[in-house]
Amino acid sequence: MVEGANAMQYLATHGQGKAGNDVIFSWFARYQNAAAAGADAVNGTVGALLEDDGNLAINTVVDAALRQAPPQEFAAYAPLKGLPSFLDLSVSLALGEHRATLESLGVHAGATATPGGSGALFLAAANFAERGDAVLLRDRYWGPYTGFLKGCGLEVATYPLLPSSTSNDTPYLDLNGFSDALDELVGRQNTVMTWLNDPAHNPTGLSLPSESRFELLRTFMESAMRNEHTGHTLLIDAAYHLYADEPHGWGATVAEALEAGLPWPENLLVCFALSMSKSHTVYGLRTGALVHLHPDLHSVQRLNDVMGVTGRQTWSASPRVAQHVLSELHATTEGGSAWSSERDRLAQLLTDRRTTFIEACQRLGVDVNPSHDGFFAWYECSNPAEVAEACAEQHVYLVPLTGGVRIGLCAVPEEQVVRVAEALSHAAGGTQ
Fold first, then answer.
1. Superfamily of chain region 20-49+338-431
2. Rounded to two decimals, what is the model's pTM?
3. Does residue 365 register a pLDDT over 80?
4. Maximum Cα–Cα distance across the chain
């Protein structure tokens, strides 16, 4: 038998470097092993919302609607771009109450159904940047971003997650860092794209306030106006936005910018990557959409075709049943209200856990990052692996990532939240 690298000549060069397990799932496995061995273990690893009893949180309204769906909706293919009713719903979920305002201001919207929010990110990576270009991210981001981008022949450029000073006009945004990084990319690329996971940022739970959103958008629009031959795409990764206090803040900000007289240049595109997998607790049905906005109707229609072709060449068609069920559910005021009430209940779980966690950290002197919405909180540190291991010694399982440790509040029962803060306090003291 031939051993070594030569034993896998059938594996292409670009496949040779793919190795290792996802760090989130490897730490989840450690939690599972500890729990199976009888330890009183705390699971702060996964990115799925769990009830306080440890079971997966299910929006009961969505569950009931799914169980009533006709068999044909489970079995049949969806149209390649998605069910028309679902695409319309996707635009409404992205923009909320600001949709009508944006339409009155001349903004057109298109959408493509995708297998989860991940599918939406892939469509953007595959189509909105030239191969070899770098995509601009904050320097704390969801790890799979790198895989999506590199799989499409793209690189990563970053700017700081937070400004160095708190006394500025753009809270929680390093506007100078963003502007400088953007200018650098514009100077050497024909396309520039930035991915902004907001609100409810993964891995920190950070959400930008309105003034910061406005200034970032203004900076991006002005860059597009100065550089008319460079394509500019702002992608809002809205995976967790429907659990945030301002779920449609970006719709409001785009409308505010246009009402303030900022022109929308032809070379600017705004997109939303949506995850109904999370917002409607149908993770396994892989339900999402890429929504794109532009003032030119022909451009929007052309993008619909491009996205549909890309999907056809990748996953063919996204799963149908959730598209049908969610469309039917939100088609009536009664259905939408029932879903919203159940969503509010689930969001309150996150709010209660976050409040308890932050208060406990303040009491124990644990300096956690600003965290406002969504599934996660963040402990910034230079030695994340050591901190995570020290927490694991106390059977509190978190995820070490670049620059810090992610705390999955979505998975931690309310009664165990203080244990997480205590574990971090112990770890911080023991690893300094």
1. Aspartate Aminotransferase, domain 1 (3.90.1150.10)
2. 0.94
3. yes
4. 70
